[in-house]
Amino acid sequence: MKIATYNVNGINGRLQVLLRWLAEARPDIVCLQELKAPQERFPEAAIEDAGYRAIWHGQPRWNGVAILSRIGAPVETRRGLPGDPDDSHSRYIEAAVAGILVGGLYLPNGNPKPGPKFDYKLLWFERLVEHAADLIAADVPAILAGDYNVMPTEKDVYKPERWVDDALFAPEARAAYLRLLEQGWVDALRTIHPDAVIYTFWDYFRNAYARNAGLRIDHLLLSPALTDRLIDAQVDAHVRGWEKTSDHAPVWIELRDPIN
DNA sequence: ATGGCAGCGCTACGCTGA
């Protein structure tokens, strides 16, 4: 089973790129971020024509997350993280698909730092850490996939010294990510490639993709009940080179079928 | 160190992103 995450940076402006990648990669489950579309403007028909059922949480202009599946309709279990009923951002959606609990997330960017946006990032991250602990406690096969807007280590940044004051590389954000790992979540891409330099995002500026000046900020974290099934994890970096493409590339994992 | 690019809503340019 192939599970992917992809920050599309505008699902309508990016629809042809998304469909092309879906046809090429044929992931079974996909978490999408940055739909940048209100709820009623999600291109459901085109997604269904491509063979996928979808649930989504839109928002005008910004944010927005979705879960796609071509192995049965996602059964929604949650929309938005617990802990702040006044949070208006569409950044978390969760569903049961094929015996796996799939959480798709778009963690706040947090820049500029310091400031209210950075405070919001850390508060949102705290809510994610708490919810992640509940999922671990439930001992279910689960995956938390999406744009975390955090480079976990210096290896995950093309030029770490340039990012020391940035919200994406802030010690507080990296510490929060580390707490997820300490709970038992496993960074799938890093597990398959312990030492490689791997990026999932390249800035539109400064010819960043051609220079491979990238960041690794899109992650798929596996609960302990899933880690034994991990057999591969890759970035479809070539998609970043397509016309009218997102600044992120799709990231995916392959899981073997459960024993029983 | 800075500004560069891109999508959206809207039809001019501000906001946001990373």
Automatic annotation (TrEMBL):
<dbReference type="InterPro" id="IPR005135">
    <property type="entry name" value="Endo/exonuclease/phosphatase"/>
</dbReference>
<dbReference type="GO" id="GO:0006281">
    <property type="term" value="P:DNA repair"/>
</dbReference>
<feature type="active site" description="Proton donor/acceptor">
    <location>
        <position position="147"/>
    </location>
</feature>
<dbReference type="InterPro" id="IPR036691">
    <property type="entry name" value="Endo/exonu/phosph_ase_sf"/>
</dbReference>
<keyword id="KW-0378">Hydrolase</keyword>
<dbReference type="GO" id="GO:0008311">
    <property type="term" value="F:double-stranded DNA 3'-5' DNA exonuclease activity"/>
</dbReference>
<dbReference type="InterPro" id="IPR004808">
    <property type="entry name" value="AP_endonuc_1"/>
</dbReference>
<comment type="similarity">
    <text>Belongs to the DNA repair enzymes AP/ExoA family.</text>
</comment>
<dbReference type="InterPro" id="IPR020847">
    <property type="entry name" value="AP_endonuclease_F1_BS"/>
</dbReference>
<feature type="site" description="Important for catalytic activity">
    <location>
        <position position="218"/>
    </location>
</feature>
<dbReference type="Pfam" id="PF03372">
    <property type="entry name" value="Exo_endo_phos"/>
</dbReference>
<dbReference type="GO" id="GO:0046872">
    <property type="term" value="F:metal ion binding"/>
</dbReference>
<feature type="binding site">
    <location>
        <position position="7"/>
    </location>
    <ligand>
        <name>Mg(2+)</name>
    </ligand>
</feature>
<keyword id="KW-0460">Magnesium</keyword>
<feature type="binding site">
    <location>
        <position position="34"/>
    </location>
    <ligand>
        <name>Mg(2+)</name>
    </ligand>
</feature>
<dbReference type="GO" id="GO:0004519">
    <property type="term" value="F:endonuclease activity"/>
</dbReference>
<feature type="site" description="Transition state stabilizer">
    <location>
        <position position="149"/>
    </location>
</feature>
<feature type="domain" description="Endonuclease/exonuclease/phosphatase">
    <location>
        <begin position="4"/>
        <end position="248"/>
    </location>
</feature>
<dbReference type="GO" id="GO:0003677">
    <property type="term" value="F:DNA binding"/>
</dbReference>
<feature type="binding site">
    <location>
        <position position="147"/>
    </location>
    <ligand>
        <name>Mg(2+)</name>
    </ligand>
</feature>
<feature type="active site" description="Proton acceptor">
    <location>
        <position position="248"/>
    </location>
</feature>
<feature type="binding site">
    <location>
        <position position="247"/>
    </location>
    <ligand>
        <name>Mg(2+)</name>
    </ligand>
</feature>
<keyword id="KW-0464">Manganese</keyword>
<feature type="site" description="Interaction with DNA substrate">
    <location>
        <position position="248"/>
    </location>
</feature>
<dbReference type="InterPro" id="IPR037493">
    <property type="entry name" value="ExoIII-like"/>
</dbReference>
<feature type="binding site">
    <location>
        <position position="248"/>
    </location>
    <ligand>
        <name>Mg(2+)</name>
    </ligand>
</feature>
<protein>
    <submittedName>
        <fullName>Exodeoxyribonuclease III</fullName>
    </submittedName>
</protein>
<dbReference type="InterPro" id="IPR020848">
    <property type="entry name" value="AP_endonuclease_F1_CS"/>
</dbReference>
<keyword id="KW-0479">Metal-binding</keyword>
<feature type="active site">
    <location>
        <position position="106"/>
    </location>
</feature>
<feature type="binding site">
    <location>
        <position position="149"/>
    </location>
    <ligand>
        <name>Mg(2+)</name>
    </ligand>
</feature>
